[in-house]
Amino acid sequence: MAVKNSGRLALTGVMTALALVLLLLTATPVATVGTAALAAVCGIPVVVELGRKAGLVHYAAVSLLALLIVPAIEGKTMYIAFFGYYTVLKAWLEQKNLPRLTEWIIKVAVFVTALGGGGAAIWFIARPALPEWLALWMLPVAAVGLCALFVVYDWGLTGLAGLYAGRVQTQLRRLFRF
Question: Which CATH architecture group holds 2-176?
């Protein structure tokens, strides 16, 4: 029993460290959103193997360490505000067996809330530095485009979870001995 528990703890630690390394890569301006999203993917093995509570512990550990270590404010903010907990939320929603439309309404509402909060913060903090051509009418257009990207991200997470369950899970279980 001790081997199983230590293997599970080791898996969580390795995935937390990997997510933190990916968040450190958000310091490069080109990779800010992509690496924050990839850091969230590191939570898939934790949620699948150990459950949603362990996924939340993983999210909290990565978030706390990112606040202390990661220099890029944008990357760690995106992870903490949305990407980090979304893996756990997605697993919880999909296990509830809600109607698909209800599930998607909740997912998009959570995304729009996070997007709106971040957008409002940027708008009020950086407003004097924003270019003149940036008008308020552009915000809803950008929000619709970002919602479309969110749908693609959600489908990608589903595919990666299936890939994990189909090909990677047995190797990780053997490696971490549980």
Answer: Orthogonal Bundle (1.10)
